[in-house]
Amino acid sequence: MTDLSKIKCFLLDMDGTVTIGNELLPGAAEFLKYLKESGRDYLFMTNNSSKNSDDYVQKMRGLGIACNPIDVMTSGEATVNYLYSLKPKARVYLMGTPELEKQFLDYKFILTDENPDFVVLGFDKTLTYEKLVIGCDLIRAGVPYIATHPDFNCPMPNDAYIPDCGAMMELIKASTGKMPKVIGKPNREIVESVFRKRCQYKPEEFAMVGDRLYTDVKTGINAGITSILVLSGEATMKDVNESDVKPTYIFKGVGEIYEYLKEKDGIGVSCVVNS
């Protein structure tokens, strides 16, 4: 088991881990500040492909957190990286928001419904019936089909939810009988994009931190890196006990990780460690 104090880059889920809505969770500001002060690093990782990194940079800076585009990885960016590794400047039929379209255009992909090399489904808040008809026709015809992430619902303020990419995948499956290759959490491809973005670190120097077992913790397991569950969001200890997905470490929240690291660094809270 990796000594947590030796981790050099923490990959951080956002909602339920660092933020709740437009507010920081307790201890998050201190935790992020200490990572930088102690020579460590962090990167925000989100499955939300309806926005791009600039949106998250603005959000975190608005909350007083140092953040640049290089400090964010969305499932949309990971999908762009994955497709670029397969075929630069490919022709793509994209079901996504204008923000996701911009990411594809920045990489010189050709967005078209004529003879595309790939069909890509994102968290498309601008989804129309026309888009679905075209996408389903292409998928039935055998065009390779990619989705940015598998989440069924996107959390909103006041414990509300709206349909996310996974729900759209099920709609398309009902029509075509086909499911896509998925890039975002919990799949390894999104972490491989992070490895390229933070190439100065070895895989064993990364840790995935999040509040969901089936996405965040499973991402760490699938990528072969340390996984940390925080109990500040969705998952509970009851969920851990009933799940076959087991994190390496469990903390109440990122504020407790901060206290733990300070103690390990000799500045100092304890956590549950799974063997």
TrEMBL record:
Binding site for substrate: K185
GO cellular component, one term: cytoplasm
Domain of life: Bacteria
Enzyme Commission number(s) from the entry: 3.1.3.-
Keywords, sorted A to Z: Hydrolase, Magnesium, Metal-binding
Required co-factors: Mg(2+)
Active site: D13, D15
Cofactor binding description: Divalent metal ions. Mg(2+) is the most effective.
Residues annotated as binding Mg(2+): D13, D15, D211
GO terms, molecular function: metal ion binding; phosphatase activity
EC class of the enzyme, as a word: hydrolase
NCBIfam families: HAD-SF-IIA
Family the entry assigns: Belongs to the HAD-like hydrolase superfamily. NagD family.
Role noted for this protein: Catalyzes the dephosphorylation of 2-6 carbon acid sugars in vitro.
Protein name: Acid sugar phosphatase
Protein species of origin: Selenobaculum gibii
Highest classification ranks of the organism: Bacteria, Bacillati, Bacillota, Negativicutes, Selenomonadales
